[in-house]
Every structure is written in structure tokens, then in C-alpha cells.
Amino acid sequence: MSLLQKTKDLSPAYFGFVMATGIIAIAAHQQHYPIIAKLLFLVSCIGWLVLAYLYTYRAIRFSKDFTTDLISHSKGPSFFTTVAATALIGSQVMLLYDLYWVAFSAWLLALLLWLILTYTVFTALTIRRNKPTLDKGISGAWLLAVVATQAVAVLSALIATQTSQPWRLELNFLALSMWLWGGMLYIWMMSLIFYRYTFFQFLPGDLAPPYWINMGAMAISTLAGSLLIINAPNAPFLQSIKPFIKGFTVFYWATGTWWIPMLLILGIWRHVVRRFPFGYDPLYWGAVFPLGMYSACTFVMLQAMEFSFLDGLPTVFFFLSLLVWSVTFFGLCRNLAKLRQQL
């Protein structure tokens, strides 16, 4: 069996690799490690190109399997990693190289993918006849829709800083709208996920890595809010609601911070108490991304809110995310080596 034949079973979550790599590249740029930032940027770009080719091939060659995953309660939301990954490529280009038109092209593609996936996935999940029960159908992966929405908000805010009026105003309005919509979507979904947590049986196998998106979705919401605060002087309507944006940005950050100890405790319960085995899974990139995003969002929030007492957090989480990324990347390389031997 060729490598392309293997795409028949390609997980929709693999663009999480690009997301995780991209945000850690941004965090490295913030922490003044330009070599690491540019190296990870290159890796994320290569990953995006390879995965874009493989997913396009799968969509054409194995259209039935692709469509089945797209309208699945368990796998459909994972396709939103394509939106977040594309937007993060644009954000890296903007922050590392200040290439406006490349970033703008990535923004257009991310926005198009967001529109297609949002109204395809959620329409399909709404009208399909046979639906799973809540405990079987929902997971932390659903919050990737929030991450994708906020990733577009982040890139919109970044591009707005280099855009002349009146388009600067409109881009900031789009960023604000996406930020608010992402927050509302999180409230809807998190209510269901928390209900699933506390009122249904929870086995070690149920605690998949995408549950870290519980925190990651709040972290990227914090990043988007912080950028809106920074952009406020050049957008009068943002200036008028600046206290509101500041309040919700801190709200998002505090919620994301609350999740970190909770997820660590549940991870210890899963792997130490219940002895659930470790093994490489593409879903683990969904656990790497939130750590890098927490570093990046806290760094920008400190600038926007002028909080000096949290200075050490971005650095700590940058090195932690880099360590976890390295371990997960090693697992990916081992998995690819095994796959090559099977071909």
C-alpha cells in the first residue's frame, strides 16, 4: 500500500501539528529566539503544504470517507484545524517577516474555509437523522470551531495594523465580531462538555488530548481580545467599548488559567492512577497548541493591560510548550518511520 493510499484513514486533526508549531514559533519570536521562531515557521509551512496536498488528494480519491468524517459528530469539528492552521501561517508571516500580502492571502483562505466548514459541519450535524448520545458525540475537539473563529479574529486584527482607512476600521470590526461570536460559541459548547464531564461516566479513554482545547480556546480568545485593545486607538468604536473588551479578555484568560490545574489533575488520574498507556496520536497536537497559545496570549495581554506582575508566565509556558512539542514531534517521526517500514 502506497503512502497516498494511507490517506483513506487520515485523521482530520493532523493540521493541529501546524497549529502547535506555528503558535510556538510566535511565542519564540516574542521571547527573542529568532532562530527557533524561523525554524519552527519553516516546519509549520512545510507541514501545511504537505497536509494540504494529502487532504486534497483524500477529498478527491476517497470522497466518501472524507464526507463521512466531515459530517461526523466525533470527527467533523476536527476539520476546523485547517482554518486555525491557515490563519496562524498568516499571523507568523505578519509578525516574523511583515509580508502583508502573503498574510492577507492566508486571511482570505482562512476566512473562506471558516465559512465553508462552519455552515457545512453544523448544518450536517443538525439535520442528520441518526445522532449519537451526548456522551458519545461531544468532546473537547468541538471547541476547535472556537479556536478557528478566534484565529481569524487574531489575523484580522494583525492585518488591520498595516491597512489604511477605511479598511482598517472594517477589519477591526470583523475581528471584534469574530471575537464575540467565538466567545458565545465557547459558552454554548463548554456548557455541554462540562455537563458531559459531570453527569456521564468518564473513563480514562474518554479523556482524549483535545480536551486541552478547553484551555486553548480561552487562550486564543485572550490573544484576540488583547490585540483589539492594542488596536483601539485607531478604531473609535473599539475605544468606546474598551472597558468591555478588557473585562472579557481578563475573563477569558482567567477561565483558561483555571483549566490548567484541572487538566493536569485529570491527566495524572488517566495515566498514573488508571495506568492508561502513552502512545503517539495526532490528537496530541491538540494538547501542545494550548500550551504555546497560553504563552503567546499572556505575553500580548501584559502589553495590552500593562500587567507587570505576570512577566514570568509567558517564558515558563514557552519552554514548557517547546519541550512538549519536541516530545510529540519525536513521536510523529517514530510513527512515520514505522509507516515507511509497512509500505
Strand content: under 5%
Q: Encode the helix/strand succession as letters.
A: HHHHHHHHHHHHHH
The count of β-strands is 0
Shape descriptor: globular
> How many domains in all?
1
Please outline the major beta sheet. Answer: none
Number of helices: 14
Short précis:
With about 350 residues, the chain is mainly alpha-helical. It is about 75% helix and about 0% strand. It has one domain: Voltage-dependent anion channel (Glycosyltransferase, Alpha/alpha barrel).
Architecture blueprint of SSEs:
Elements: H1 3-6, H2 16-30, H3 34-61, H4 63-70, H5 81-97, H6 100-127, H7 134-137, H8 144-160, H9 167-199, H10 213-231, H11 236-240, H12 242-273, H13 285-305, H14 312-342
